[in-house]
């Protein structure tokens, strides 16, 4: 059975994966964009506080993607943000034998709710913790970034390269938003308030990863590890020639248990600098 799944996955990955893009665009077109700037008050719900929101668009888009993606790859399963919120045991699939679609239907729900186009739909295909392919789609901006393990990354079909920051220039770094951090996390992230570094609160995590991959943001430093927020972006940055690691200098594991915070950056030198500052917090 395991060999059958692996053969099916290998065959799937050898294709052009265009049907995945179509499924993502369709979910956004039918469930997300029609509600952008059109949400009624009763279509917005607080999950864990006033800054942690979910909308009917999140739930319906995830349901549609779950059906579509598992149909494209028989034997696969979905770990979606809303499914995990309803049943945390769903997370166990990240360490299982089945290929896993990791889905964040609306990454940046707060932006979506407030009419800001800076939100995205994130999808990543993984197997036994290895990131294989990812899609970062900003429907209101009409931008789609795709990465394939060992195959590079593209944005709207154009190859992505993160490049390196100009020597001597101040580094721009997106960090975990203050509304979602503990006092201890704020203390550690405050190590980036130093000469040569300009930290700012992050928006949509997926779009911050895209900014690193395209070279318009030098690095990011995050203090939480939800797989649906990071899987797609980590592969995107890696395939655009960027780098990432936890504060312990280890690869980020989508199955959890990471030393936090962690960082992704345009190149290894920048990553090392940011991690060094974070580690100085002790």
From TrEMBL:
Cofactor(s) the protein needs: Mg(2+)
InterPro entries for the chain: Inositol_monoP_metal-BS, Inositol_monophosphatase-like
Gene3D superfamilies: 3.40.190.80, Fructose-1,6-Bisphosphatase, subunit A, domain 1
Pfam families: Inositol_P
Coiled-coil spans in chain: none
Biological-process GO terms, alphabetical: inositol metabolic process; signal transduction
Source taxon at top rank: Bacteria
PROSITE patterns per record: IMP_1
UniProt-recorded name of the protein: Inositol monophosphatase
Keywords: Hydrolase, Magnesium, Metal-binding
Organism: Streptomyces luteoverticillatus (Streptoverticillium luteoverticillatus)
Residues involved in Mg(2+) binding: 81, 104, 107, 229
Lineage, highest ranks first: Bacteria, Bacillati, Actinomycetota, Actinomycetes, Kitasatosporales
Gene Ontology MF annotations: inositol monophosphate 1-phosphatase activity; metal ion binding
